[in-house]
Amino acid sequence: MATKLSGLQIQKLLPKTNCKECGSNTCLAFAMKLAAQKAELSECPYASEEAKAILGAAAEPPVASILLGPGKTLKLGDETVLYRHEKTFANRTLLAVNVNDTDAPADRDRILASIRDYVLERVGETLAVEFVAVTQRGKDRDAFANLAKQALDTAGRPVLLRSADPAALAAAAAKVKGSRSVIVAPSPEAARELRAVAVENNLAMSVTAPDLDGLVKLTTELRDGGFKDILLQFQAHSLAEQFQTNTVARRAAIKGAYKPLGYATVCFVEGGDRLTETAAAVNEICKYGGICVLPSFDPAQLAALMTLRLNIYTDPQKPIQVEPKLYPIGEATAGSPVFVTTNFSLTYFIVSGEIENSGASAWLLVPECEGMSVLTAWAAGKFSGASIAKFAREIELDKQVQCRDMIIPGYVAQISGELEESMPGWNIIVGPQEAADLESFVKARLKSA
Ligand code: SF4
User: Domains along the chain?
Assistant: First the structure.
């Protein structure tokens, strides 16, 4: 198994002139950064060809990055940690929905249109299905190839081409040339045969073998032959085995710098009831899946999986934020009251949603709080009477709104006095602690006012 180079080993390959042009004071300091994957070799303008050859491989991310889809807008790999809390997971699991060549034409059209049109809005992000898998179950190669083209054109998504017949895969690959779709090779022999097809059509290839040893042999051979657009498909026979294999491969890639298993994966979820399928997809999202293919289009299942994926792949070190500003809710007019909350996305969307549900029209004042929730921002001094008043002055709230009712979250009732002093003429009202109580609060306090 290949091992990572240490800082001292890397330093021996550098010019050792300590010229500082890379931004580090010494070559050793730069070598240490390279070893910790906090710098790129290209930052040293004097690195020799030998160093580039040796370090180039060592500097690659443990899980190779790969760009997919028309315009190369979908990225997989580039992962550097085993656990999300160590840093962050870089590129989220991509979700695909399968369509078969044996499905009735009307059903195929409906599935492809559903994939194209499905959109989930969640905490300010627009989420969609990223791939279509096209599976050949019949015998007609042309029908399979034409369905691949139809999937690409109708759904507007790259496709995973899946067949036991290499000739059918080659025919379909030609139809989706240049789309950075994926050929799913059914065996090592087929992968060797289809390698040239993938290169010719600028597609990636998912490869498989009966066991990990066979897979390692195959990826090593492909890589040594210059083919790098590789994805891995494991042949697991149970959810437990899939979980274990995903983990073994990712651990080998990240902890052991083991290149033959350092690729993103493809998993076809199938052969169970909806709950079993969902559990398998959850496994992929939580434990290192690259592309997860669902057997059918189910908007409820997609919504649950996309929400989970958002949680797993959001960088825990960077709170998701909304822009600090005054947001209208409903038919807000100058006479509508002003609610206040922080710019943590989740807080904003929950609070705005609850006010909207109440049927009231209002304004939501969202000052800059560095993406913290209400209590955290208050404890950090980012959500005080003075800071809210300062923001209100900056956006000239007095000119935008004539109503002088301002509702603050119940959890920060203690800032009401300071806020009242900082905003003369405003009537500061302490709202409920929980956003879930906003609807009844609005009905009881505001509509009766
Ligand atoms: Fe050393 Fe290269 Fe950095 Fe100069 S630029 S200090 S030679 S690593």
Answer: 7-56 (1.10.15.40), 66-312 (3.20.20.20), 325-446 (3.40.50.11600)
